[in-house]
Specification:
Elements: E1 24-31, E2 40-43, E3 46-49, H1 51-61, H2 63-66, E4 70-77, E5 81-88, E6 99-100, E7 103-104, E8 135-138, E9 146-149, H3 166-185, E10 198-202, H4 205-217, H5 236-249
Antiparallel strand pairs: 1-5, 1-10, 2-3, 4-5, 6-7, 8-9
């Protein structure tokens, strides 16, 4: 059956009425366009990044430099998708670690592929929902200077994500990495990412630890991955995590 893109409305996969600028932890999955294996391959249970995969990994690790209200936790770039835990930290003046359901939890940012130290810093101020928010992003890679994206006085489109929200952060990341990968590959305008992304709100420490372990083990479980067209069967660990997250939303 042939779909008619012009007549089809995209279904939102966000929680209706939920404020995605709220401090907290979010489990996000971003898929490559048509789930192509753009970012590398799994060999003997280990992920080997392609040049495009290294771009994705490099820019993700530097996200908090451009969104001061963001902290990173576990992440993994896979052949055709990326799993990440993204924290939006507390508002101005916070000097403690982020919390889930009132319990203090460590959000662990990473600073680069060769960085083994994990730092638990004070929460940075949450970006205000203002039309004057400006995102500073690297132009082309680790050896390039920075430039400012967008006009500080230009508002987002009315139906777009709120500034500083999970949707705005992921949208910016996808846009920047797409431009860089296309420039590197001499493929201007080619899509890199699926238009939408998948997210779940992490509501307790049990879910947080389970998701961290799932992300770390993802390459070793690639033969069971739902995004692997050659998967042998459904991954019971992924099913149990999704059941846990859905239970927290009910």
């Amino acid at each position: 059956m042939t779909s008619q893109p012009g007549n089809r409305r995209r279904r939102s996969i966000r929680l209706l009425g939920y404020d995605y600028t709220q401090p907290g932890a979010y489990f996000v999955t971003i898929c490559a366009h048509e789930r192509q294996h753009l970012f590398g391959e799994v060999v003997d249970g280990q992920m080997r990044l392609s040049s495009a995969g290294r771009v994705v990994d490099w820019y993700w690790r530097r996200l908090p430099q451009h969104f001061p209200h963001v902290r990173l936790d576990a992440h993994m770039v896979m052949p055709n998708h990326a799993h990440v835990i993204l924290w939006i930290v507390d508002a101005v003046g916070a000097t403690h670690s982020p919390t889930i359901s009132g319990q203090m939890v460590n959000a662990v940012p990473t600073d680069g592929p060769d960085q083994t130290q994990r730092v638990l810093g004070n929460a940075s101020p949450l970006l205000a929902n203002s039309e004057k928010t400006v995102n500073v992003v690297p132009t082309d890679g680790p050896d390039q200077t920075q430039r400012v994206l967008g006009n500080a006085s230009s508002p987002l489109r009315p139906n777009g994500p709120a500034p500083g929200s999970v949707g705005a952060i992921i949208g910016n990341f996808k846009s920047v990495t797409t431009r860089r990968i296309n420039k590197m590959n001499h493929t201007p305008g080619d899509p890199v990412w699926q238009r939408n992304f998948y997210e779940r709100i992490v509501r307790n420490e049990r879910a947080l630890h389970a998701i961290r372990q799932y992300i770390a083990d993802n390459p070793a479980r690639w033969h069971l991955d739902r995004y692997n067209a050659a998967a042998e069967s459904q991954d019971p660990l992924a099913v149990s995590i999704m059941d846990m997250l859905r239970a927290g939303e009910s």
